[in-house]
Write a structure and sequence with these properties.
transmembrane helix; single chain; about 10% strand; AAA+_ATPase; about 575 residues; ABC-type oligopeptide transporter activity; alpha/beta; ABC transporter transmembrane region fold; binds adenosine-5'-diphosphate; membrane
Length: about 575
């Protein structure tokens, strides 16, 4: 409780800072509305007193009944009209806070290197933060504004009541103690509930994606698996409902207890007023004004405690956000793009994924000379893609060294100097121009530059068919864009690789979606396509890489053979065996 008591003001201050940083002007405007609200409430009490004076003690009244009633009506209307203004201002401010929260989440994810990003801890924390980032900022904003308004209201009404009878204030404030305790309880149950349900939500979200997104539609229908997946989704829904039902009951109980507490305090205060009148300590007009003030004060107290509750409920999520942002690695410095004048050498390089027993890449030595085309072949799972990620600076070797022209190369510099296209490359639902030029933001994506690489990668035939040329939207996920075939998408990815003019290009299965003729042409012409760049070509089809200057054969994370096609065939080892096997299948 002591910890809670000290932690609460700190959390509230942190929430206030977050809101103010999101939108300074908006926060000021919202605060002004809150002050106006408190002043208007004070006006209602004062006008009420005038009305009671005019009714009960007309001879001593400062104003007549009609102007007093008019003043009361005006003040009541003013109070009423501030409310919708506040609601709309909350909407705007809530959106701005939400934007700021998202900016921080996106900054952290954008900064995270691939290793961090792929760790399960990061993924789970990101999921939780993302889910709460949608609703919590609004709650924090509304609660904070409610708290400010509530505090002002409580202060003004308490001042009025102290003038009438100081004892009324502690009676009402006492109602707040159980309310705050109940809020903390609510907060704890809510956080535990969200923690428990994250995994469930993730699985449900994944099923929703499978069942609604276009890339999965054909296969799901071909297998008739929409029904069974719907059933799984239904099971998850039931689990969520059961958990939510329990949580809702807890929250209803807490809300009921809070309301009862406030109502009891209100009754006690009204009884006290009646008692004061009976003993002749206050006159009837004062009693009337006090009754209005008590009613308003209990409303303000309710707002205040609900707001504290809301803040306490959201605070763990804000803390979660802070932890998530802090967990991200510091921003990596931008890398320096280098030319390759001699060679890139990986020496004795190993890499093991977390929670995997054996290394995916195990004591590997490879080198890629300037202008060379080097091939990496091997069966699925032999470690080719992992090695490609080390070459491209996405992973650092866990042991061994990566040297660029003789000097140990830091990952950011390597990333800036290497282009990589993976076999599961991204099909951006953007224009063709964006799809190509996204690989290099340092250049103006002129028609000429974009069309040049599009032509070289063989996309150009498709461009002629596109309605808006290079500005045609691709993909059907967002707009009615042009849908390309798998092979056309692959050529777009190739154009993207060429557009980014780096000394070394890594192409991971660059022909997986091409037809045999196109595949043959791509590999036969690859030197012309690369135009002097060095390349690491990855393929599990051995015939594709015969023309490489050097071929590394991978098996279970190790390089087991190395040489030209002819040398490897002459050795009659692993390569020769697999090559013969594959070409026999073709014959
Ligand atoms: P290839 O490209 O030759 O098919 P990979 O480099 O993709 O091989 O995979 C090598 C090994 O590492 C495989 O056993 C694979 O299961 C494992 N692996 C690949 N990516 C990950 C990952 N992100 N986390 C854990 N294991 C992985």
């Amino acid at each position: 409780m002591v910890r809670a008591a000290t932690a609460t003001p700190r959390l509230i201050a942190a929430a206030a800072r977050e809101v103010a940083r999101a939108d300074r002007l908006g926060t000021v405007v919202a605060a002004v509305y809150q002050i106006l609200g408190a002043v208007a409430a004070l006006g209602v009490v004062a006008a009420g007193k005038l009305v009671f004076d005019a009714l009960l003690e007309p001879e001593q009244a400062a104003v007549g009944l009609t102007p007093a009633l008019l003043a009361l009506a005006f003040m009541t209307a003013l109070t009423g009209s501030i409310n919708p203004l506040q609601t709309q201002q909350h909407r705007l401010l809530g959106e701005r806070v939400s934007q700021r929260v998202w900016d921080r989440v996106l900054d952290t994810t954008a900064r995270a290197d691939l290793v961090t990003y792929e760790s399960t801890g990061f993924a789970t924390a990101l999921e939780r933060v993302q889910q709460n980032a949608l609703t919590r900022p609004f709650m924090v904003t509304a609660s904070l504004l409610g708290l400010t308004g509530g505090l002002l209201g409580v202060a003004t009404m308490s001042a009025v009541l102290i003038g009438v009878e100081p004892l009324l204030v502690p009676i009402l404030l006492a109602a707040g103690i159980p309310a705050v305790l109940l809020s903390r309880w609510a907060s704890r149950t809510e956080f535990a509930f969200a923690h428990r349900l994250t995994a469930l939500f993730r699985r449900r979200q994944y099923l929703r994606q499978l069942l609604t997104q276009r890339p999965y539609a054909a296969e799901l229908r071909a297998f008739g698996s929409t029904g069974p997946l719907r059933d799984r989704h239904g099971t998850l829904n039931s689990q969520v409902t059961t958990a939510l039902r329990g949580q809702v009951r807890r929250r209803q109980l807490i809300a009921a207890l809070t309301t009862v507490g406030v109502a009891l305090a209100l009754t006690a205060a009204l009884l006290a007023i009646v008692e004061l009148v009976r003993r002749g300590r206050i006159g009837l007009p004062e009693a009337g004004a006090a009754a209005i003030a008590v009613r308003l004060l209990s409303g303000q107290l309710n707002t205040m405690f609900t707001s504290i509750g809301g803040l306490l409920e959201s605070a763990p999520f804000l803390a979660d956000l802070e932890r998530f942002v802090a967990s991200g690695p510091p921003a990596a410095p931008g890398g320096r793009k280098r030319q390759l004048t001699e060679r890139l050498v990986l020496h004795d390089v190993s890499f093991r994924y977390p929670e995997q027993e054996r290394p995916a890449v195990d004591a590997v030595d490879i080198e890629i000379g300037a202008g060379e085309v080097v091939a990496l072949v091997g069966e699925n799972g032999s470690g080719k893609t992992t090695l490609a990620k080390i070459v491209a600076g996405l992973y650092d070797p866990q042991s061994g060294s990566r040297r660029w022209d003789g000097a140990v190369a830091a990952a950011p510099d390597v990333r800036a100097s290497v282009t990589v296209i993976f076999q599961d490359f991204v099909r951006y639902q953007l224009t063709l121009r964006d799809n190509i030029a996204i690989s290099d933001a340092s250049r103006q994506p002129t028609d000429e530059a974009v069309l040049d690489v599009a032509r070289r990668a063989g996309v150009l035939g498709a461009v002629d068919d596109l309605r808006d040329g290079v500005d045609t939207m691709l993909g059907r996920d967002l707009d009615e864009g042009a849908d390309l075939s798998g092979g056309q998408w692959q050529r777009v990815a190739l154009a993207r690789a060429l557009y980014r003019d780096t000394a070394l290009v890594v192409l991971d299965e660059p022909a997986a979606a091409l037809d045999p003729r196109a595949e043959h042409e791509l590999f036969a012409d690859v030197r012309a396509l690369l135009n002097g760049r060095s390349a690491l070509l990855i393929s599990h089809r051995f015939s594709n890489t015969r023309l490489a200057d050097r071929i590394y054969v991978m098996d279970a994370g190790r390089v087991v053979e190395c040489g030209t096609h002819d040398e490897l065939m002459a050795r009659a080892g692993h390569y020769a065996e697999l090559y013969t096997l594959q070409s026999a299948a073709y014959r």
